[in-house]
Amino acid sequence: MISTLAKGSISIGRLHKNGRAPMPVSKCPRKKPTRSASSPDLAALLDLAALEAMWRELGVGPEDDALGEAQGLAYEAWEAVDGRSRYALARKALKISPFCADAWLILSERPSMSARDRRTFLERAVKAGELALGAGGLTEYAGHFWGFLETRPYMRARHSLAEDLWQASDREAAIGHLREMLALNPGDNQGLRYVLLGWLMAMEDYAAVEAHLQEHSDEASAFMCYAQALYAFRRNGDVGAARAAAQEAWHCNSHIPKLLAGTKRARFEDTGYYTWRGEDEASYYLEEYGFARKGTPGAIEWLVEVTKNLTPEPRGRGLVH
Predict the structure, then answer these.
(1) Measured distance CA(171)–CA(219) in Å, rounded
(2) Helices and strands: H and E segment counts in the chain
(3) What SS3 state is found at 320?
(4) pLDDT in tens, 75-106
(5) Contact between residue 132 and residue 67 where contact means Cβ atoms under 8 Å apart
(6) Is it the case that residue 9 has pLDDT exceeding 50?
(7) CA 149 → CA 47, 86, 132, 176, 248, distances in Å?
């Protein structure tokens, strides 16, 4: 009934410094402070034009020693237990190499950051990550991104920029970033296809939603199956095709309807791994792509009703990351 996972190993949608597990990245809109705490940093750091000028002068690429040293400090910063140490290490990394995208990204995460300054840091993070790949790097790695460690800072930064644009209601730009990232990395280790699907649904771009679902029609993940069921219900209501999609989704993961209805508690540990069809996969789905957040009245009640008498099929279980 259900095909195997099309993408193989799936990286949970949020990002991590080295690809082993996701970093916690808040998806909630940040409060705007009365003044920006980042202005001194911005004044002292290179802007986009200066970054490009330095890159042309030095010819920096993935094998650059200073960049490698700075990246090591960025990894240390991700592990720092307090913000002060984290941001100090990021500043130190940028002094060694301003092409360390992760250091820019770390500084963008400060809670006191103004929306404008956060955007500036993210734009510089993306540019630094692109330049760090060297001349023609985007073309050279296209189609195989994330398979090379040196591409990951760029991909992390660009995902964060896309999220920032989406939260700021610059939705077309945000969607454009995800589309281009998926073109660079069709294997989609970051799970961006799920984020994009949610955004297309929110935009009510149904032609794009249908095309996206068709492109991933051979994928049996809970994320894609429940999106298919939601879409069918949103477009046509309680019809046979929508019910069939809901039942198919339930067989992808039977825990999700109860979690959405609040009759079952979510269990989720952000380790970077989840069990295919397991409670942890369902909890992750609820956290990131919950049916309830799609703005479709009656969808949860309908889903519970359609699936309440189903019985699970015996299946193997395995870890997905």
Answers:
(1) 26
(2) 16, 2
(3) strand
(4) 999 999 999 999 999 999 999 999 999 999 99
(5) yes
(6) no
(7) 25, 21, 12, 24, 36
Beta bridge mates, 319: 275
Cα–Cα distance for residue pair 20/292, rounded to 1 Å: 30
| 100 vs 121: CA distance, rounded Å | 12
Please, which residues have CB within 8 angstroms of residue 32's CB and are 6 or more apart in sequence?
114, 115
C-beta of residue 106 within 8 angstroms of C-beta of residue 86 = yes
Residue 140 lies inside a defined structural domain of this protein: no
d(CA 76, CA 90): 9
Pair 16, 272: CB distance under 8 Å: yes
User: Does 305 reside within a domain?
Assistant: yes
- Residues 6+ positions from 83 with CB-CB distance below 8 Å: 110, 111
Range of the domain at 228: 1-19+218-321
Type of residue numbered 122: L
pLDDT band at 158 (very low <50, low <70, confident <90, very high): very high
Confidence of residue 279 (pLDDT cuts 50, 70, 90): confident
The residue with tokens 């950051």 is 113
Contact present, 287 and 266 (Cβ < 8 Å): yes
Per-residue pLDDT, 214: 92
Instruction: Work out how many domains the chain is built from and give that number.
Output: 1
State the pLDDT at residue 221: 85
The answer to whether position 126 is within a domain reads no
pLDDT at residue 65 is higher than 80: yes
Tell me whether residue 41 is in a domain.
Answer: no
Confidence of residue 33 (pLDDT cuts 50, 70, 90): very low
Cα–Cα distances (Å) from 157 to 95, 140, 197, in that order, read 19, 19, 20
pTM of the model: 0.80
Gap between the Cα atoms of 50 and 45, Å rounded: 9
Rounded distance between C-alpha atoms, residue 21 and residue 11, angstroms? 8
